[in-house]
Design a protein that fits this description.
The protein has three helices and no strands. The protein is mainly α. The two termini are 27 Å apart. The relative contact order is 0.10.
Length: 108
């Protein structure tokens, strides 16, 4: 996956090359930003789950702290479900319409 991203980046002309930027470069940049944001979403999910688990373990007999920890874990799982459902909806729409929605392309 990283080699694909690096290959796409190498297509972008350098600042001193004198070539004007085109919409093709925007497609690559947009795709890379979405890929990076999905990666960050996974990292944030993992960190939130670990924090919630740590808070739950260290809550002891404090019901208020245990409830806060359960709420943190619940929100992390709901965030994961939301991201997964968004991707599932995109795949279902792709299947029924035949349009590739997961690839950003500007019609020319």
């Amino acid at each position: 996956m990283l080699s694909t991203v690096l290959a796409q980046i190498s297509k972008i002309p350098s600042a001193g090359s004198g070539d004007a930027a085109t919409l093709d470069e925007f497609e690559v940049v947009f795709g890379n930003v979405v890929f990076i944001l999905l990666g960050f979403a996974g990292i944030i999910l993992f960190i939130t789950l670990v924090m919630g688990g740590f808070k739950y373990i260290t809550a002891g007999s404090d019901q208020k702290a245990a409830g806060s920890a359960r709420q943190t874990i619940t929100y992390a799982v709901l965030g994961f479900v939301l991201v997964a459902m968004a991707l599932l909806i995109i795949r279902v729409l792709e299947f029924f319409t035949g349009v590739n929605l997961s690839e950003f392309k500007i019609a020319q």
